[in-house]
Automatic annotation (TrEMBL):
It is an enzyme of class 2 (transferase). It comes from Sphaeramia orbicularis (orbiculate cardinalfish). This is alpha-1,6-mannosyl-glycoprotein 6-beta-N-acetylglucosaminyltransferase. It is found in: Golgi apparatus membrane. Its EC number is 2.4.1.155. Residues 33-84, 95-537 form the Glycosyltransferase family 18 catalytic domain.
Length: 552
């Protein structure tokens, strides 16, 4: 080995084994696995380990990486994924975090999504292994001879690993160094989304986008959301409660199943959600008998307005029966973007929701603070407003009594039929999940080929608009997988490359054209008043925004 190469390797050895780091213990003696593989603290033993056991250094002369069979199997396993083989999936969603809240009116949206994902994968013919505890997770994922500092000894048999942000941290702890080798297989259920600006650690830290939940450095499409918040992520969704029932014949349906009474049901299972909403609800109660399903501990005096009929927490079956009778499902402003309004609309309810002025975001709202998104929420349920709309969705300023009363009276005079967007039906979710499994390959180093370039429609947006807005204005959706077709000198004249999640873009002042230097930062989200963003848009079939109209 040359002197300079020897010096360089020695410096790397020092940085890897003598200092702390995000994936490395403090010292080579801190994990018994190093001794197991023959590391005794000498530079020679450490270099041998780094070249023979890990793939950090090139193999020493005359040696091969026989110990890296797991890495070779990883490569062949990855290549097989395009051939539509049976998939196995590890789902880890820290169930204990939800179980403690379910009986007290806690959030169920995440559990709905997990259940529908598991069902979809099973129906599509994939083998599913479910893990709901740290102990079970470690049994499947950790087979290093020590505490996780060394690579695992045998390759994982899972082609896809579904988890959430909490589970991702546990996976990192269980898998040690192998965590990075398998990261192309992770799919993160992320209810509110992770924008590219928050995803790369160094970039997020230097540009002020660092949050508790970001900086994992995955491909943005590996994050899977409950609603199509940003096209930068993959919209996974769920199946609406009534989607199956709506497909039954008239003979199979119960008599008068959608006969509506003059009642409303308030969306809010915990008392704190009702604070400062009495006047709004009073206006509604003047037109409709108003019902609630609020959890109240035994012996706890009710703080709800006296005109509210509270049923307490209901089972899903009884809650569905109540919604079938109701004419209006009343939003209080929180929770944001849950499954319940979609289910209510599927049962023939009109959804009445508040408008937010100014919009809610991480800058002015505690719920969104720390979340890896710059989204500004102008309604309690943006999907319902933007993708469904009237007569199923009515958005009002709830501080304006006249506007609320007029909206309620308009709803009472309108026939609102049950409606489920295709993407929330069983067929829609199966179609979407199947397309992701077939077409999304984050283990490949080549440019994405799906959707094909034939569906690309290019728009140069106005100053200050994100590509989400630019495409939406033309009834299209931004497609980040097509950015690389625009990111070339052939698109702009007089360009320069930069690491910036707003690029490719044009800056009129100074006539500056910028191309993206870091493909991981291609982003439909993000806007700046100084830039006109160049946007890749595509059409989508009715009710299935995640897929393109003319894709194979």
């Amino acid at each position: 080995i040359s002197t300079i190469t020897s010096w360089y390797l020695t410096q790397q050895v020092h940085s890897l084994f003598m200092q702390s780091g995000p994936y490395r213990p403090f010292h080579w003696q801190s994990d018994p696995c190093y001794t197991f593989y023959g590391v005794d603290g000498t530079t020679c033993s450490i270099l041998s380990y780094l070249s023979q056991i890990e793939d950090f250094c090139p193999p020493r002369p005359g040696r091969n990486r026989s110990a890296l069979v797991w890495h070779q199997k990883l490569k062949s396993h990855t290549e097989r994924v395009r051939t539509n083989q049976v998939y196995a999936c590890v789902c880890f969603c820290t169930m204990s975090r939800f179980q403690a809240m379910v009986d007290r009116g806690g959030p169920l949206g995440e559990l709905v999504q997990w259940a529908d994902l598991g069902a979809s994968l099973t129906i599509l013919g994939h083998n599913v292994t479910l893990s709901i505890s740290q102990h079970r997770l470690h049994r499947f994922m950790s087979n290093s001879p020590g505490r996780g500092g060394c690579p695992i000894q045998r390759p994982l048999t899972f082609d896809l690993i579904y988890t959430d942000y909490h589970g991702l941290a546990h996976l990192q702890g269980a898998m040690g160094l192998a965590f990075l080798h398998y990261k192309c297989r992770y799919r993160i259920l992320d209810s509110f989304g992770t924008e590219p600006a928050f995803n790369l650690g160094n970039y997020a830290h230097s540009r002020g986008y660092k949050t508790l939940w970001g900086s994992w450095g995955l491909q943005p499409k590996q994050y899977m959301t409950m609603f199509p918040h940003t096209p930068d992520n993959s919209f996974l969704g769920f199946v609406s409660e009534e989607a199956m029932r709506l497909e039954m014949t008239e003979e199979e349906l119960e008599p008068d199943i959608y006969k509506k009474d003059k009642i409303s049901v308030v969306y809010g299972k915990q008392e704190y959600m009702w604070q400062e909403k009495s006047e709004y609800l009073e206006v509604i109660s003047e037109e409709l008998e108003t019902h609630a399903t609020v959890y109240q501990p035994p012996g706890h005096p009710s703080k709800l307005p006296s005109f509210i009929i509270n049923h307490g927490l209901l089972t899903q079956e009884h809650f569905v029966r109540l919604l079938r009778r109701a004419k209006v499902f009343v939003g209080l402003g929180f929770p944001y973007e849950g499954p319940a309004p979609i289910e209510a609309i599927a049962m023939g309810c009109a959804f009445l929701q508040p408008r937010f002025n100014p919009p809610h975001s991480s800058k002015n709202n505690d719920f969104y603070k720390g979340k890896p998104t710059t989204r500004q929420i102008s309604y309690q349920h943006p999907y319902a407003e933007e993708f469904i709309g009237k007569p199923h969705v009515w958005t009002v300023d709830i501080k304006n009594r006249t506007a609320v009363k007029e909206a309620v009276r308009a709803i009472l005079q309108t026939e609102v039929m049950p409606f489920t967007p295709r993407e929330f039906t069983c067929e829609g979710m199966l179609e979407r999940v199947h397309s992701y499994i077939i077409h999304q390959n984050f283990c490949s180093t080549s440019q994405p080929t799906w959707p094909p370039v034939s569906v690309l429609r290019v728009y140069l947006g106005p100053l200050g608009d994100s590509c989400v807005s630019v495409c939406q204005r033309s009834s299209l959706v931004c497609e980040p997988a097509l950015f690389h077709h625009l990111n070339s000198d052939a698109t702009f004249s007089s360009t320069q490359e930069e690491v910036n999640h707003l690029f490719p873009a044009y800056k009129p002042w100074g006539q500056h054209c910028g191309l993206q230097q870091e493909p991981m930062l291609f982003s439909c989200a993000g806007a700046d008043p100084l830039y006109r963003r160049l946007c890749p848009c595509r059409a989508f079939p009715p009710g299935q925004v995640a897929l393109c109209s003319d894709c194979p």
